[in-house]
Amino acid sequence: MAKSARPAPSLIPAVLALIVLIVLGYVLFADLQPSRTEHTVSPPIEIEEPDFEIETVEPVEPAEDRQAVIEQEADEFVNTLAPESNTNSITLSGEQGEFVRHDGTIIIPKTETRQTSIDELKADKTLKADTHIDLSYTETNRQESSLAKLNDEIDDKNQLITIENADGTERKAPLIEFLNDENVDAEKAITLIERKDIILSTTIGELDTLKLSPEQSLTAVIDKGSIELSVKDITQADDFADNALFYMHKVTERDTQGLWGIIQTGLIKRFRQGLQLEGIGINKNMVQVTIPADADEPLPTGLSSFLGKILNNKVKSSYVYNYTTSTMGHDPNLIHPGQQVILIHFTAEELKRIYQFFADQRSEQAQSFSIN
């Protein structure tokens, strides 16, 4: 019996497998290629690099070094607070008090204040031609305008303006109030009144050159010379060293808060003003501290603050000297502008403690800021 021949293997499955591999390889290769779509932008966009502000951070001193610097600052500040006795005398102008040594001298300008006029000043034969005077008065200007014009010229409609009425009386109100008046005629002519305070320095001999009405009402502060006084002559005390420090202030009409306010304001201004002392601290040549305006207020617990205790003691031990009568008083509630100077004795240690106390607060605030 004859054997049947075995069929030859088919190539179709192999071909199909090869096709599948080729397709799969193409798909994988295509996925690996980056897909990018280019767009042409017109005009081109310029990418600017941001400007970063360079902030210089001062190095933080170690606590021990910082405290040593503060102590050195306090020493230098107090030691140079008042000039040596062999320097020029200190003038008390009334604008700001000064620290003076016990062996120092002060000059107090003498002035007289009058409500007067140019004619009255010229008629006073006691005033010489070179007598210096400070004049202050109010200058009044009237000009024709209209509410419509003012509305165009003034941006802030709440600005106060003064208008003269037909009967000569004046009305002062915000511009918007005039514009909102019932039946207002914005184009109607009005008389606008403007007042400006003027202060000028001159002499009696120059009064004729001023473009002022002879009857112009004004305030004149007349220079009456000056008084030179020794601090020792004022205190009449031998128990103070020559370098003992006194804060001295000429009483003026602005001293409405009495001795407490005089001392507080004087310390705040003097310590904030500072002194130029090079070579102390890091990146620093001004030795100064800021005393907060409310530093004398009681603490939340009701107890007196550090500065409040000092002010209370100084008010009780202050000198009130009347330089017009050469008499001394100690009543803190009885002060007279234009007649008295206030003397408050501070020891060097007291002033150093004040400086260090508020300098420490400054350092603590700066340190907490840098940590946060």
TrEMBL record:
Parts forming coiled coils: 140-196
Source organism, top-level taxon: Bacteria
Record keywords, A-Z: Coiled coil
Species in which this protein is naturally found: Methylophaga aminisulfidivorans
Protein name, as recorded: Uncharacterized protein
